[in-house]
Backbone:
């Protein structure tokens, strides 16, 4: 993973600025905590507004943050003429999403000019305990950035 | 699809009551609009609070509603001693999620005692126009209902 | 599904000729039985050479034929300057693959210029009985045909 | 990965003996080359009998060996009263399957009593060169071993 090279020098600023435009992340209460070439972390604190029927965080909220983490991991490697959309993803849920906070790590597994394959994992933290709760495998596509989105 | 039989007569009440406990659905603004044996619809109105960086609804919000639609479709066929959790899902995104509202349809493809396979589709509506925007294939698992959740 | 239009008039010949070059299909004993715009069927007879440890047909053999069925369904809609490769697929196994023959149906769900999303299903037949055994959701990509492959 | 403990002492013999019953592996020419708790390798030499239309090894053959590698990785951790079936898998294809031989590595990511989640990767080797060609994420299920299969 360590040999990824960003395509544009201002990649971190660009990723953080794009993330700030994702209003869903604000609605969920997610924060971007780590941005390096090919890897992005997003943290989601527990909130009573994000639950499923048993009181755990809903699979959809967990998926939202790991999807954004994977998409932005792919974006770190693209020239600023392009942005990223999700072609598809697959997520396995490994344990109930309970904890004080959840950290989604998105990593580029194979970078391509058009399609990139990323791996994502979400870990739940509760005091000193931590547990892997979700695993994602996803295809991201580079698309020409629209003027308003640059 | 039409030959599915609900395992308990109060299945619709049970499904709607469980859905009402999913605080994420309230946060997103989603409503359950249709519940029959083996099929559930959830509607999500467009909201500026649910977007990705280009101004379309975030893939995670779309996934959240179609995941719940598939899970509740599976629940319509289970005895009230059990509830449903998502084992895994895979979603393809077919078109940008733009529109005034989005309807997620979850259908049971194969009902099993422990594992059920469901198909989900999300359609965007804008005036008279409609477009399929997401396709889900998912495995749901029946788990013993916890006392507090019954 | 019925409104798909083939991009070139000789699409059926082209699909069958390409299938004939897939030596794995010959090795497995598979035959292409139906080719219309957006839909292709491939039949696999039971064979003692294709089994897993319990005596059922191996998931990989079932996947091979439904992958080819989906890929060729996508190819029916492409100009003859392009061919198709599998970007990714996801398969759920619904019942043990036992029967005298297996029919894989691949259908285009959404045709795109570069990426197409297809759905596949494999049904086992045994005398008068039939059972759905596998469900596929897949992304296919159009790539420029190499001279030797045209 | 290194902290996996096999559930029965004869796990390697059991895994190899089961693999030997998978006639599809013999048909493809695959060999099991490595068996440790939670991880299994299967090697597939190039063969002209396994190709798709462009002369690369067919995605279905690659999937077959990595599916078996993941399933047997899960089996290393199960008591000998149980065996493993594939619930579902998802595979991304990263590069054309060309090379002299292909090594599929299956690893248990999360071991469960009923469901296990495994990751698989296939690498193509050609002389000194190697390239990752496929990535799998899969759900395996433990089922009671049938008498004849024990």
Residues:
């Amino acid at each position: 993973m360590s040999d990824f090279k960003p395509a544009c020098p201002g990649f971190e600023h660009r990723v953080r600025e794009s993330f700030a435009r994702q209003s869903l992340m604000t609605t969920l209460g997610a924060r971007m905590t780590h941005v390096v070439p090919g890897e992005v972390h997003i943290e989601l604190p527990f909130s009573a507004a994000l639950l499923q029927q048993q009181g755990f965080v809903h699979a959809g909220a967990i998926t939202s943050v790991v999807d954004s983490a994977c998409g932005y991991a792919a974006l770190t490697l693209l020239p600023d003429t392009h942005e990223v959309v999700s072609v598809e993803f697959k997520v396995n849920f490994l344990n109930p999403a309970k904890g004080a906070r959840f950290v989604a790590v998105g990593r580029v597994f194979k970078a391509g000019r058009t399609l990139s394959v990323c791996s994502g994992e979400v870990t739940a933290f509760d005091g000193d305990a931590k547990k892997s709760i979700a695993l994602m495998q996803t295809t991201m596509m580079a698309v020409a950035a629209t003027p308003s989105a640059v």
In short: Residues 59-75 of chain B form the longest helix (17 residues).
